[in-house]
Structures are given as C-alpha cells and as structure tokens.
Automatic annotation (TrEMBL), chains A, B, C:
Protein name listed in UniProt: Hydroxyethylthiazole kinase
The organism of origin for this protein: Selenomonas artemidis F0399
Statement: the UniProt record of this protein carries the keyword ATP-binding: yes
Residues given in the record as ATP binding sites: 118, 171
Described function: Catalyzes the phosphorylation of the hydroxyl group of 4-methyl-5-beta-hydroxyethylthiazole (THZ).
Molecular-function GO term, any one: ATP binding
Length: 274, 274, 274
C-alpha cells in the first residue's frame, strides 16, 4: 500500500492522455487532468484516433454519449492502444440502460482488453452478466456496496478482475478496487459528490493518467486515483461556504486536486485491504 | 397559484430526465437538474434513445446544436415519450435563424406534440408563423414582451398554447406562461442572466423535471420552474462580489437552485395573472 | 498602437459570432464572448452553417474535435464567410498531431483564406511546412518562442502572414502577431493559463469578435484580443486565494474579461514592436 510516489510521478511525467469521452463532462475531464499534472487530448474521429493514441501515454474510453461515429473510434483507438501496450481505462457509463450501451461496453471489454474498468456497481454487474439493473447513469439501490455485503461484493469484483485480467474499480459509498488478487476498500469521498455531474468520468480519466505515468504498478496507480478523487471531494467540501451549492463544489473538487500535496493525500487516505 | 409543493416534489421524486440537448450548455443542464433534485441522462444516438426515454420520467428536446444524427434521435425519443404519455419539453433554440432550425422545431411541435414549449418570443413566433425575426439565439428587439404590449403578447401566447394543446413558456424581461386559458406573467430574474450562456436551456430542463415530478399539474410545474430560475438569478446576483463577472454568476445561479428553500421561493415569486 | 477603442467597439457593436468549435471548451468560448460584449452562436451542421454565417458578423473555425460532419461544415461556412467578406479566424488546434488535423487545417487555410490564424508556434509551423512537431495540443518545447530566438521567430511569423495575407497570431510565453509587415510581441499573460483548458480557444473567439466589431483594422483588433486575454489572466491570478486551483482560475479569467475597463487594459498592456 505504498502509493505515495504516484501523484508526484504524474506531475513529473505529465503524461498525454487521449480521451474519447462524453460531451457532458468533457471540460471537467480536461481540467481535472491538467489539475493532476497530466495533459488531455480529445479526439474522436475514426480517421485520426489511432495516430492520436500513438502520441499518448494512456487512453480513456467513456461511453457516456456514445454514437455511431464514436463507437468505431473507441474500438479503433482501443485496439491500437492495446497493440502498443498503452494503458487503457474503460468507463462503461450507463451500461444496462440501453442495449447499445451494454453491447458496446462488452465489445470494448472483450475486444480492447482494457487495463482498468472504472464504473459503478450496476455498470460492472452489467458488464459481467450481460444484463443488469439500471437507474440511468446511477447505480441501482439494490446493487449498492454496503458494509453488510462488503465481502460478497469484493468477491464479485475480484472475480471480474481475474476473469478479464484487468484492474476493476467499482465506486460508490465504499469504493472497491482489485487486480483480481489484492482488493482494497476505500472510504474517502462524500455523498455530495454525486450531485456534481461527472465525478466518475473525472476519476476514470485520473486513473488513465496514473496508469500512464506508472504503468508497471497498475493497482497502485488506480488506488492513487481513487484516493485522490475521494480526498479532493472531502477537502473541497470543507471549503464550501454559505450559499455554495453543487456548482461551487464542482469547481472546488478540481481545485483540490490542483492543490493536493502527497502528504495530505496519504494522511487522509482511508484504505483497507478486504 | 399554489405551487409551493412542486419543488419538494422534484426533490422527493428525483425524476430521471432524458435530455437531447446542445453541447454548449449541456454540463450546466446536467448540474442544474442535480441542483434541483432531479437526475439527468444524456443520450442522443437514434439506436438507443427510445430505451433511454422509456427509463425516464421526462424528456427535454433542445435543438441548440442540432445535426443530421440528433434530429432523428429527437424525433424518435419524442414520439416514444408521447406514446408513453411522458412529459416532453421542446426548446426551439434559434428557430428562425436557419431553415433547418425552423423546420426541425416545427416538425417536433407537430409530430411529438410536446407537453411544454419553452423559448424566447422570437422563437415561439417562428414556431407559430413558420417564419420570423431572428437575432441568432436571442429574441429580436422588435418582438420583445414589454409592459406596453403585455396584453397582446399574452393573447398571442395563449392562442399558441391553445392551438397546440401545450404549456407555452415564453421567457424574456417579463416571462409569460399559459396552458391556453390561465396565463401568468412572471417578473423574477435579472437582465444579467442573458450574459450567461444557457440559462434558457437550464430553464427548459428544469421545466421537464417539474413536469416529470408532477405531471398532473403541468401549469403549476412550469410556473415553478420559471420562478425557480428567476429567483435563483436574483439570489445569485446578490452574492456577487467585486471582480465577479458572468462566469462567477453562472456558478452562483446553479448554487442558488441547489440551496433554494421553498419558503424563499414563494416569498420572492413575482407572479401575476394576465 | 492605438487600440484603446476596440474593446468599447466590441461592447457597442455586440457582434454575433458564429463558432464551429470543439465540444471540450465550447461553453467557455460562449461565455467569454458574452463577457467581452459579443454574442455567440454555435451551429455545425452542413445544412445550416451558411445561413448562420450570413446572420453573423464574424466566424471562428476551431478544429479541436473535428470530425467527418464538422469538417465540411467548417469548409462551407468558411467559404461563404469569405465570399461575404466577413472576418474569419482559424484555430488549427493540434495541427501536426494527426494527418487529418494537418490536412484539414491546411485545406481551411488555402480554401477559406482566413482573416486571422491563431495557434501555438508548433501548429503554425505545421501549417507553414505541412508537417511539424507535435506534443498533442501543446507547442513542442523545441519550437517555443523565446527571448533568444525572438527575431527569427518574428521573421517566420511575418513571412507566414505575408504569404497567406492574413493576421498571424502565435501565442505562448511571448505572443507574436503580425499582418506581414508590422509585428508585435506581447508579454502579458501567465504560464498558469496553460493549466486551464481552452484559453487558446477563447482567444481565437475573442479575436473573431474584435475583427467582427472593427473589420477595417484587423491588426489592432487581433492585438486587442491578445492583450485582453493576457491581462485577464494576470488580473484573475491576482484574485486567486488559498486553495484555489485551475478550476477557480478558469472562472476568474472570464470574469476579468467581463469586468475589464479599457483604461486598465491599456495600462497593463506589454506590447513591443519587433
């Protein structure tokens, strides 16, 4: 659990991260990458994605507003990144909400073989089962990871990671992440983060940045991203004033990542092996 | 004019709202829905929009950056929502600015039969007449609703609503909204709101959320959304400090919706029947 | 170097600016135009772009997330604007990063004949040479304009502007802009602006607004936009507090443009003829 060097590594490597991501939260994704010390490039036309991926140290595929043009772009970029052994993060936004999302997320999982999958529990269950609960882009209440079902949830996530030889990152009130063997539960973050659109998308991009900076330690990289996002949510919340709401919180979360020092990050990390 | 229960209803129902909306203001639309207590989902590929609409309690169609892919998506989602009797809001952004926008807005009006239409006066005149003034995405000065032409403007809007059996919401310095019979003039809001891109888009989405939460009282729902947006603009303005400009105002408007309590909302509401 | 009247002219003319721009930074582009006193309209479907351009006083073409639909839209809008003698700004985002970007940027340069080209030095070198260094959407370190190579850099930019009969605006630590004869170096701005996604895109849009307001003095218009963006970055930085990061900075830059008075702008301008 020594991951205190990963954030400094992102800042010194300043990895270029290729994002094919939804247009809802893309600006925050770009700014959070810059906040962490990485550099974003967004490009989603099938004709150029392979060249862009080749320039980059990591790739983030987010199906939040997938369409007939971006699906082949994600597939092409993902296959090329895999062939080049570049780290790839898949964010299966809304898998389970439509057949197109479920099928696309599964096609990407099987064809691209992402280094990491980052989603909520319902999305990851849908990826695993091919069908699942859906409550739009949120996890269904029935699926939620709780203190009561933590061991069973960890088993499920561990099995998923082992089967797909990836890092699985399942976020919610308690975050779980595993390489199929070691599994961590992270209890950072705040419930209010779900009132800001795109904190999950931001975490996926940060995971890609961390993997791009330290590709040889993927679990530590993913753990850093999860803790970073959670601690940023806590620090940002402590900076909220009277009359501030979710829009101010949005700004303050990215600011907290920009201002994060690794000592603060490690001191506030709430990580347990499960 | 008892509409004090609508905002609490949005917060308790937390309706999922499907938005097919422009990429300029989509992040604010998502965050304002979250601020009000609703939940956004954006999806615009024709292959999935019917399934997404089916998951949702309301639909918002905004033609701000319409294109050859999203026009059929809006039509398909709209028809499906209509068949399922789900509330639909149409925001005819820029109708009158191009033949494509005018034709698309009118096609959606006639084919989808939206529950509510929310636009500026020039856009609604264009919808009504098939042609109109345009000053880009703003209302033409010649069309503006003023104290002097209020009665005539109200007659026009009432006739439009009656003909299309919808709630018509025409916003500007004075907002007018009607179900074809009862017509309200709302004098909340501030002129400075037009310096923030997308406050109209946000209002359309809030209208969809209110209709989704309380579909049986569409006029009260639309009135709540109009007053909520206007009062938020006033509260946000009162929180502006030295050096703050339209970007800070943008954040503070959404924050004001997030922090709004219904007592404050009702106390500040400036609603008159006309 | 008397350009103190340009900002007031933007505010009094309130020019409508048609933007075909990337979806990453489009919201900031819209809000920065409003902050400066201009009015944005975004429209990128080939079927409507000529009509929209015709409504507008200026056009901004930004290839940041170009695709198979928007490339012909940019070409059509650009040709139409050229035929109507409307000012056009080309922002060749990421030229050099893929063949598609390089080819599109060059096609637009030769076919549309933009009034101004605004990019980083690597992008403009790629436009000039047809090939170039690329570090994603950032300038390659090898290309950077420095005090040491200032004269040679100015010669290159001047030759580019002369050949293409345009205003060339090359931004970086030192900004250079020229009409092919007079060349200015501007030393406003802060390095931290590169931690906010889209400050370049915002500058391109502001350049289009200034050209639209005062088309007869294109070099003064471009100079105003460059100084305005730089001074805004300085003022915004002076308003940063403890815990503020790149997201707060983003908001404060646009706010500084919104609150800018021309006296302040002229007093802080760091312009030198080179």
């Amino acid at each position: 659990m020594a991951f205190n060097d990963i954030l400094p590594s992102i800042r010194s490597a300043a990895p270029l991260v290729h994002c094919i991501t939804n247009y809802v939260t893309v600006n925050d994704v770009a700014n959070v990458l810059l906040a962490a010390g990485a550099r974003p490039i967004m490009a989603d036309d099938p004709e150029e994605v392979e060249e862009i991926t080749e320039l980059c140290a990591g790739l983030c595929l987010n199906i939040g507003t997938l369409n007939a043009r971006t699906i082949p772009a994600m597939m092409a970029a993902g296959r090329h990144a895999h062939a080049l052994a570049r780290p790839i993060v898949l964010d299966p936004v809304g898998a389970g909400a439509s057949r197109l999302r479920t099928a696309t997320a599964r096609d990407l999982l099987y064809e691209v073989k992402p280094t990491a999958v980052r989603g909520n529990i319902s999305e990851v269950r849908t990826l695993a089962m091919g069908t699942g609960h859906s409550d739009g882009v949120d996890a269904a209440a029935a699926d939620a990871v709780t203190e009561e079902n933590l061991a069973a949830s960890a088993s499920f996530v561990r099995a998923f990671a082992a089967e797909h030889r990836c890092i699985a990152v399942v976020t919610g009130a308690i975050d779980l992440l595993t390489d199929g063997e070691t599994c961590y539960a992270v209890r950072n973050g705040r419930a209010e983060m779900s009132r800001v659109t795109g904190t999950g998308c931001q975490l996926s991009a940060l995971t890609a940045a961390a993997l791009a900076a330290v590709p040889v330690r993927p679990l530590d990289a993913a753990l850093t991203a999860v803790v970073l996002m959670g601690v940023a949510g806590e620090i940002a919340w402590s900076r909220m004033g009277a009359g501030d709401g979710n829009a101010a919180y949005r700004t303050k979360i990215i600011d907290a990542i920009c201002c994060m020092d690794e000592e603060m990050l490690m001191r506030r990390a709430q990580v347990e092996q499960v």
